């Protein structure tokens, strides 16, 4: 296993040149880059970085609601994902991380039933996988419930993989999302072993004093109030509830040889480029003691 990072956290601080990111990462011992949508798909630059061999780019990521109720928006998201799959194929990038999309009939009142979107997702992914197979690229569905996604639990993964039998379809496994959904983040690694194509290095802290006061349904989403009233928050690996020793041990048991990609969304270590970079390196230091 190797440790890499997701570019979004650096992009959010204004660093958007892939060469500058690569130079910083190489200098700090990171081995892989997962490139988010804020980075221009400059194939010449990507190819040069890969050819030089000092750091790899094994993953592109594009998570959106591909089944948005606005048909033009949905078509645009689908087009952008297909463009990334095709670019990955040309560049020898092995996988693209994405969401599934979700239809409006999965939501009713305050309840959510992702199964209601299953048929639409299966039909949509026939076209995505046709492109992926043609370009020899794997699609790794992240288990994040946000961004339009039904692949949020072992139950839903089982349904999806039963309906879509393709060795190009698997998971981008993020244990942090299991924590705030009150699910076991460890055993599913062994259960879905060979379907885990990618791993996100992110943690979650349960803010129990907030939860005791407001419950789990009160989630303010305005940026300035989000963590004041939220009952959980993402943290760097080692600062939340996930036992990374167990995660690493289970990944070793299934023979995972890919990347643990640090996805920095920790509000304590945001606010400046220096803080974000320090946060990524703190996460690296914590994870690497177990691999």
UniProtKB/TrEMBL annotation:
Give UniProt keywords alphabetically: Isomerase
What organism is listed for this UniProt entry?
A: Alkalibacter saccharofermentans DSM 14828
As one GO molecular function, the record gives: isomerase activity
UniProt KW Amino-acid biosynthesis keyword: no
For this entry, the protein name equals Sugar phosphate isomerase/epimerase
Domain Xylose isomerase-like TIM barrel, residue spans: 40-268
> Which SUPFAM superfamilies does UniProt cross-reference here?
Xylose isomerase-like
């Amino acid at each position: 296993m190797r440790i890499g990072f997701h570019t979004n956290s650096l992009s959010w601080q204004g660093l958007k040149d892939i060469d500058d990111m690569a130079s910083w990462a190489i200098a700090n011992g990171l081995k892989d880059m997962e490139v988010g949508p804020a980075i221009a798909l400059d194939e010449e630059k990507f190819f040069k970085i890969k050819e030089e061999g000092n750091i790899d780019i094994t993953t592109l990521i594009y998570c959106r609601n591909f089944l948005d109720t606005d048909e033009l928006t949905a078509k645009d998201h689908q087009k952008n994902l297909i463009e990334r799959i095709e670019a990955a194929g040309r560049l020898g990038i092995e996988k693209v991380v994405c969401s599934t999309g979700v239809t409006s009939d999965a939501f009713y009142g305050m309840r959510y039933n992702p199964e209601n979107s299953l048929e639409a997702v299966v039909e949509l992914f026939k076209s995505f996988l046709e492109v992926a197979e043609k370009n020899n690229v794997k699609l790794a569905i992240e288990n994040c419930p946000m961004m339009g996604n039904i692949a949020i639990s072992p139950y839903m993964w089982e349904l999806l993989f039963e309906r879509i039998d393709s060795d190009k379809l698997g998971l981008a496994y993020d244990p942090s999302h299991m924590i705030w959904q009150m699910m076991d983040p460890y055993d599913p690694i062994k259960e879905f072993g060979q379907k885990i194509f990618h791993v996100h290095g992110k943690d979650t802290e349960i803010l129990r004093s907030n939860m005791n006061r407001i419950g789990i349904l009160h989630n303010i989403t305005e940026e300035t109030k989000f963590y004041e009233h939220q009952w959980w928050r993402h943290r760097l690996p080692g600062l939340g509830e996930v036992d990374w020793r167990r995660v690493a041990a289970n990944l070793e048991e299934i023979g995972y040889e890919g990347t643990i990609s640090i996805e920095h969304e920790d509000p304590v270590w945001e606010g400046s480029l220096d803080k974000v970079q320090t946060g990524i390196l703190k996460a690296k230091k914590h994870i690497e003691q177990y691999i």
